[in-house]
Amino acid sequence: MSIDGLTGLVRTIADFPKPGIQFRDITTLLADSAGLRELVDGMAGIARPLDPDLIVGVEARGFILGAALAYALGKGFVPVRKAGKLPGRIVGIDYVLEYGTDRLELHEGQVPPGARVVLVDDLIATGGTAQAAAQLLREQGAEVLMAIFAIDLPDLGGRQALEADGVATAAIMTFAGH
């Protein structure tokens, strides 16, 4: 399947979650077995040469893609969750969003110092969540080898912001606009 074939499987929903936003919904791609396989294989092709110790997925669609990628590479998977979702001892980071703040957390000790990790999410827009996840991982002593996304929205500058923060990035698809 070509990149055009993959992008054709992504549904665009106008004015969600607010007017002017073109929401890129990957659930339609995930439901297509050939599309899902092509997407995960593309991510695996990028991540495999890095030989990470762990794949880390950001809630929520990053869980789907990250777990599939971890399986494809024979690696472990670690979820980075929104606040209050994990039992037991956690570590976290607060970060600023366009309209407020949020928090990401993971289990304390689940990413050991020195671990080489690849961060995965479905989409990079402004980059705030990915930057916070990378910082949280670095605070645990991990080396963030790369962040891989299904979709990049380059007009929002997230990829450039993440790379300026020292995190190499890759995306399988690119969509113009917001």
From TrEMBL:
Residues 51-149 form the Phosphoribosyltransferase domain. NCBIfam families: apt, PRK02304.1-3, PRK02304.1-5. It holds the Pfam family Pribosyltran. Its EC number is 2.4.2.7. It comes from the Bacteria. Its main location: cytoplasm. This is Adenine phosphoribosyltransferase. CDD domains: PRTases_typeI (cd06223). The gene is apt. It is found in: Cytoplasm. Homodimer. GO terms for cellular component: cytoplasm. GO terms for biological process: adenine salvage; AMP salvage; purine ribonucleoside salvage. It catalyses: AMP + diphosphate = 5-phospho-alpha-D-ribose 1-diphosphate + adenine. InterPro entries: Ade_phspho_trans, PRTase-like, PRTase_dom, UPRTase/APRTase. Catalyzes a salvage reaction resulting in the formation of AMP, that is energically less costly than de novo synthesis. HAMAP family: Aden_phosphoribosyltr. GO terms for molecular function: adenine binding; adenine phosphoribosyltransferase activity; AMP binding. Pathway: Purine metabolism; AMP biosynthesis via salvage pathway; AMP from adenine: step 1/1. The keyword Cytoplasm applies.
